[in-house]
Amino acid sequence: MIELDPGRLPRIGIDSVDEIDVERILSIADMGITIPTEANPSWPWYWRPVVLVQGTLAQVWSVISRRLLTGMYDTMKAQMKSQNVVGGGEFLRAIQAAENCTTCDTLILGDRSSVETLRRAASLALQSGDALGVWNRLQDANAAQTVKLEQSVREQLQSQQDHPVEESDVSVAMMEALKTDGSFREEIFSTLEQQVPEFTQAFLKERDYLMGESVRVQLERPDVKKVVAVVGLGHVPGIVQHLEAAFCNATLPLFAQSTQPIR
Questions:
Q1: What total number of domains does the chain contain?
Q2: Rounded to an integer, what is the distance from CA 162 to the centroid of its chain?
Q3: Which of 108, 121, 182, 210 shows a CA-CA span of 20 to 30 A to 160?
Q4: Residue 168 maps to a domain
């Protein structure tokens, strides 16, 4: 199972699922996995006009957000390329490993599409009654954490050389620091959970649920011995918690009380 959906395959150089040489390729849609109704409450009939307006605004908000995130992604990708680092390369290697593994019969594209995730985030932002505030809180939280990490990384790099630090070196070093510094990752997610619960709900908790479910469903197949999941470090704690809760019939993390409830 990899943290991708069919629409994001071109980002790692695969035009379509037809190019992948694995017996069976499944997406969460193929498996019928969706966010339970508790996370998407139904609305009474008299609220439907409001919901329709919210849906339109959410679509506009998500399109704008997607363009901004795409621009950030392209910039980061260019910086990484200058350092011979390929973004998403771990997912490409995972697919290649699945193709070369004689006992692997299924590849699961276990993530929700980025379009749906942005639409969900936009919907939650609008439901909060302060959509602009959500965006500002997200920017402020990200900026504060990024500045803190960048300063630490820049100082460390500068101490190792006597010439100005290249910005591309800083970007790559920041990514490496996020991989190795577990306490800093926890601090980032804790800050986001407290300040922007709408973001963590859409981008982390719900995606953790979907990817965790895609693993759980396969593990319940009598012929399956193992499922290997390749995901970003930020999703590991949530997926582990989901599987532990699911197999113990406990409350799933998706429905656990947040530090700050979504308004």
A1: 1
A2: 38
A3: 182
A4: yes
